[in-house]
């Protein structure tokens, strides 16, 4: 397995967050359906890794670039039945691993 520094991992994380903040067209349900994680997952992992210094809401704000409720009101579209089916199948694969 290739080793990398914490600094490289942190830089990649920050770039991923910026990318997701710019790509508001990439809906969380689509991310879940394709990759098995979404912005909320990323924020939860950030909060968990912060040793209690970030609340879940603060981590979401860091990932979304604004309060979660504001992002939802501005950018979240209603999920289609197809998106939900794909997301459920993807989430099931997460539990299988």
Helix content range: over 70%
- Molecular shape: globular
SSE string: HHHHHH
CATH class: Mainly Alpha
- Major sheet description: none
Structural class, from secondary structure content? mainly alpha
Strand content: under 5%
Q: Please name the fourth-level CATH homologous superfamily.
A: SMc04008-like
Report the average pLDDT across residues.
96
Distance between the termini: 19 Å
CATH 2nd-level architecture: Orthogonal Bundle
Give me the oligomer status: single chain
Q: What radius of gyration results from the CA coordinates?
A: 14 Å
Uncertain ranges: none
Number of helical stretches of at least 4 residues: 6
Please indicate the count of domains. Answer: 1
**Using DSSP, what is the number of strands?**
0
Question: What is the CATH topology descriptor?
Answer: SMc04008-like fold
Task: Please sum up the structure shown.
The chain has 97 residues and is mostly helical. It is 71% helix and 0% strand.
3D architecture notes:
By secondary structure, the protein is mainly α. It has a single domain, classed as SMc04008-like (SMc04008-like fold, Orthogonal Bundle), CATH 1.10.3340. The chain is 71% helix and 0% strand. It contains 6 helices and no strands. It has helices at residues 6-22, 28-35, 39-49, 56-64, 68-75, 81-96. The radius of gyration is 14 Å and the shape is globular. The mean pLDDT is 96.
Give short descriptive properties of this protein.
97 residues, mainly alpha
In terms of topology, how is this protein built?
Layout: H1 6-22, H2 28-35, H3 39-49, H4 56-64, H5 68-75, H6 81-96
Helix pairs in contact: 2-6, 3-4
């Amino acid at each position: 397995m290739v080793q990398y520094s914490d600094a490289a991992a942190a830089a990649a994380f920050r770039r991923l967050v910026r990318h997701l903040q710019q790509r508001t067209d990439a809906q969380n349900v689509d991310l879940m359906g394709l990759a098995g994680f979404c912005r909320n997952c990323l924020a939860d992992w950030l909060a968990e890794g912060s040793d209690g210094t970030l609340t879940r809401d603060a981590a979401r704000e860091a990932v979304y670039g604004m309060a979660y409720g504001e992002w939802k009101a501005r950018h979240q579209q209603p999920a289609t039945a197809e998106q939900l089916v794909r997301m459920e199948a993807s989430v099931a694969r997460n539990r299988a691993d």
